[in-house]
Each structure stands twice: as C-alpha cells, then as structure tokens.
Amino acid sequence: MTAPALRVYEVHVRAYRRVWRGSVISTFFSPVLFLLAMGIGLGQLVDANGGSESLGAVSYLVFLAPGLLAATTMQTGAGDSAWPVMLGVKWAKTYDAALATPVRTDDLVYGHLLWVTTRLLLVAVVFTIVMAFFGAVSMPWGILAIAPAVLTGLAFAAPVLAFTAQLKNETGLTAMFRFGITPLFLFSGTFFPVSQLPDWMEPFAYLTPLWHGVVLTRSIALREPTALAWWVHASYLVGLVIVGTLLARRNLAKRLRS
Fold it and tell me: Burial of 28 by CB count in 10 Å (0-12 exposed, 13-18 middle, 19+ buried)?
C-alpha cells in the first residue's frame, strides 16, 4: 500500500467522520429489524411447521442470521463502490482533482477498497453484536464469521468499482441493483437453502458469489461442515477481489484519461 493510497483512505475517513450519524440507522437498526421481522416473526411460523428439519435442525433465526450478515456486507460493498465512485468520476469529479496531486489512479482504487474494507468490518461487527443479542450466534464463532462476511463484501466491492468506473451515467447502477444485487439477496441461500429452488435454478445459485459467502459465513457461525471445502469458497471470493481490482485499475485509468 503506497503513501498516496493511504492519503486517499484518510480522505474517506475524514469525510465519514462528518456523516457517520447518517449511517447509524442503516448499520444498527437494519439488522435489528430484519432479525425481528424475519428471524423471529417469520421464524416462529417456520419452526412451528417443521421447517427446521430442512435447515439442519436449527431454528430459523439461527439459520437466517449468518446469511443476512453475508448479504448485508454484499449490499454495503456494492453500495459503497457504486454511488460514491460515480460521484468521483462524474458528478463532483473529485478523482480528477486528486490526480493533480501525487495520487495516481491505482492509489484511488487501493485507497477506496481499503476504506470499503473498514466499512465492511464496522458493519459486520455491529451485525454480529446484534446477532449475539438475539441469541442467533454464540461466541467466539460469531467473531470468526466476521472474516468471511467482510471477504464477501469485498468480492462485490471490487467488481462493482470496476463496473462503475466505466459507466457514462447512473442508469447502469440502478439496473445493477434491480436485476443483480436484489435477486442475489433473495435467491442465494440467505433465506432458505438453495436446494429448495427449482432444479433449473440451482446451478445458477451455486455460481453466485453471495452463495459462496453465505455458505462460508454460515458454516463458521454454526460450526457445520460444508459440501465443498472451505478453501474452495474462499478462493472463489478472493479470485473475484483480485480480478475486480485489476479491472477497476484498468477501467478507472481509461475513464480518467478520456
């Protein structure tokens, strides 16, 4: 990590210090509301009708919570690499201003991803604390589940950064969230095992990054083995981070030169 990249990271930290209060609701109350409504509200119906038999003999709340943790980091990573990047490359053109300093495009990418990692860590820690409060996870397994959740968020943050860097307008971001992020949230094993999907949909679910993140996070939180080795899921996510970072460097450099 270069010194200019750390300066980019410092800019993000200083900006967040002024606006952090606005993220408290989404960071803290979102897991509370989701776990209350889905984990406890819907969970009582699922458990009362024998749904736990298909969930590995655990309550729906315990099954749901780690999946929501991974899905929340996905949304955070994607969101923080979408609109703020569009702000930098088009709306406010702060990236152009940064390039008038010793900062280079690679520094913008690395500094941004380092900041997103910090944001993901904060979100995952808060979510885990809420999970523990609801009795959905036991310690220290909840703490260990933070790492795959953060990795899941980064596996989306880097490719979304690459995607945003080459967009001419924000309509592409709206389409990405509507037709990409939201379906993944619903059909990648967060709310129910993907084995309950129609047969033709299962292979697609297994290819999604969120499924790998959900499986890895859930297996650690619940201390359960996975059908695939843990390193397979981790390698898939790490590969996306690497490829997304390389593409982000190329796309951002091309965009800022045009």
Answer: middle
User: What residue ranges do the domains of the chain occupy?
Assistant: 3-257
Contacts of 118 (CB under 8 A, 6+ apart): 9, 13
Question: 3-state class of 168 per DSSP?
Answer: coil
What per-residue string of b and e applies to 182-209 under the rule 16 or more CB within 10 Å gives b? eebbebbbbbbebeebeeeeeeebeebb
> Which ranges of the chain have pLDDT less than 50?
none
What's the angle, vertex CA 132, arms to CA 209 and CA 120, rounded to 5? 40
Q: Shortest CA distance to 138 belongs to which of 152, 148, 128? A: 128
pTM over 0.85? The answer is: yes
CA angle 156, 39, 187 (to 5 degrees): 40
pLDDT for position 158: 98
- Do residues 95 and 89 touch, judged by C-beta distance below 8 A? yes
CA-CA distance, 203 to 12, in Å (whole number)?
A: 39
